[in-house]
Design goal:
This protein is an all-alpha fold. Helix 2 (50-77) packs antiparallel against helix 5 (136-157) and helix 4 runs antiparallel to helix 5. It is 72% helix and 0% strand. The protein contains five helices and no strands. It has one domain (14-157): Ferritin, core subunit, four-helix bundle (Ferritin).
């Protein structure tokens, strides 16, 4: 079922708004998936430096959840209706499936890093799409999200044991 189009007085063209709502919705699904992947790792990780990694995941969860909220709100600003349920996210997320068997911190570091990398890659593509469409507000939002995703990936990768 498609979400409703909500009337808006914005000066952004309907064609641009429709395209951007689609891009935002795809990234909303990814963000919701990532929020719960971070919680999965937070709940199940075990090993050396547990408390630091556990607390990092909680912090990153909050940061990404904030970006998910901003993404859903941008959909509303553009006259769309966010489809933000876990069910929709599970059906449409472009992130790698999280390995439910992961327990060791290094397993979670690997899985979270892959998901953050995919999320950041998709966000960077969205920056380009929004810029090409002339929606600098949405491009700016995606730029903000990309900085958060890149920093999160750096923090998680810092837990890798050097080879």
């Amino acid at each position: 079922m498609k979400a409703k189009k909500i009337p808006t007085s914005t000066d952004i063209s309907e064609q641009t708004r429709k395209a951007m709502v689609g891009v935002l919705q795809a990234n909303l699904a990814d963000g919701i998936d990532l929020v719960y992947q971070l919680k999965q790792a937070h709940w199940t990780a075990r090993g050396p430096n547990f408390i630091g990694f556990h607390e990092l995941l909680d912090d990153l969860h909050e940061q990404i959840e904030e970006k998910v909220d901003l993404t859903a709100e941008r959909i509303a600003v553009l006259g769309g209706q966010a489809e933000g349920t876990v069910d929709v996210s599970a059906q449409t997320s472009r992130l790698p499936k999280y390995p439910m068997q992961a327990v060791a911190i290094d397993e979670h570091v690997e899985a979270v890093t892959k998901s953050l990398a995919a999320y950041a890659e998709n966000i960077r593509k969205a920056i380009d799409e929004a810029s090409e469409a002339g929606d600098e507000g949405t491009a700016d939002l995606f730029t903000e999200i990309s900085r958060t995703a890149d920093r999160a990936r750096w923090f998680v990768e810092a837990h890798k044991v050097p080879a």
